[in-house]
């Protein structure tokens, strides 16, 4: 979200390429297309940059004067801070798992998959995967994590 610009927000829809995807993929990149809730737009209105030209970042963490190294450091620091606060919230709510942005991404895709109402193709698009196989592998890894956790439950007596 740090690299999100106002040009990425049109008619209530956000379209962007994940930075990791840009760094690790060749060829045409699959954009993430999201329809945020009204609450998300309230957050943007409250915390976003006041200048809303198409090239302005939505949130005031980055600016054009930053070089790539500084930009990456800033994004990593913000992610670390968000993860710290998510972890604290999770503890207060009594969650056993440590909440992070990574866990949120996994939870998002797992909930959609287990709903049996959302296609793998939609999940793939919403994660920014250009290849359905990447999404399938991503989702299958959760099943293996579940198997390990369930196995431990069987012998926890």
Question: What's the structural blueprint in terms of helices and strands?
Answer:
Blueprint: E1 9-10, E2 13-16, H1 19-24, E3 32-34, H2 38-47, H3 68-92, H4 101-114, H5 120-127, H6 132-154
Antiparallel strand pairs: 1-2, 2-3
Helix pairs in contact: 5-6
Structural features, described:
By secondary structure, this protein is mainly alpha-helical. It has a domain at 1-64. It is built from six helices and three strands. It has a three-stranded antiparallel sheet with strand order 1-2-3. The radius of gyration is 18 Å and the shape is globular. The mean pLDDT is 86. InterPro entries: DNA_brk_join_enz, Integrase-like_cat_sf, Integrase_catalytic, Tyrosine_recombinase_XerCD. One of its GO terms (molecular function) is DNA binding. It comes from Dyadobacter sp. 676. This is Tyrosine-type recombinase/integrase. Pfam families: Phage_integrase (PF00589).
Keywords:
157 residues; three-stranded antiparallel beta sheet; 6 helices; DNA_brk_join_enz; Tyrosine-type recombinase/integrase
* Average pLDDT rating: 86
Q: How would a crystallographer describe the biggest sheet? A: 3 strands, antiparallel
Helix-strand makeup class: mainly alpha
- Determine the number of helices (DSSP H or I, runs of at least 4 residues): 6
User: Which regions contain 5 or more consecutive residues with pLDDT less than 50?
Assistant: none
């Amino acid at each position: 979200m740090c690299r999100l610009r106002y040009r990425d927000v049109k008619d209530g829809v956000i379209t962007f390429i994940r930075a990791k995807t840009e760094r690790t993929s060749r060829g045409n990149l699959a954009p993430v297309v999201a329809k945020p809730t009204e609450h998300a737009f309230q957050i943007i209105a409250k915390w976003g940059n006041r200048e809303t030209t198409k090239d302005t970042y939505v949130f005031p963490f980055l600016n054009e004067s930053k070089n790539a190294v500084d930009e990456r450091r800033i994004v990593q620091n913000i992610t670390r801070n968000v993860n710290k606060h998510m972890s604290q919230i999770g503890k207060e709510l009594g969650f056993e798992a440590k909440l992070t942005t990574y866990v949120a991404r996994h939870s998002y895709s797992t909930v959609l998959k287990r709903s049996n109402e959302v296609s793998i193709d939609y999940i793939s698009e919403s994660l920014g995967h250009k290849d359905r196989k990447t999404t399938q592998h991503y989702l299958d890894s959760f099943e293996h994590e579940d198997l390990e956790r369930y196995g431990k439950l069987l012998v926890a007596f």
